[in-house]
Amino acid sequence: MSSLVCPVDLDTRKLQEEVRAMYARVATTPDGEFHFHTGPAYAASLLGYDRVALSAIPDESTRAFAGVGNPHAIAPIEDGATVLDVGSGSGTDLLLAARAVGPRGRAIGVDMTDEMLGRARASAEAMGLGNVELRAGDLHGLPVESGSIDVVISNGVLNLSPDKRVAFAEVFRVLRAGGRLQLADIAVENELSEGIRRNVDLWTA
Question: Has this prediction a pTM greater than 0.85?
Answer without folding.
Answer: yes
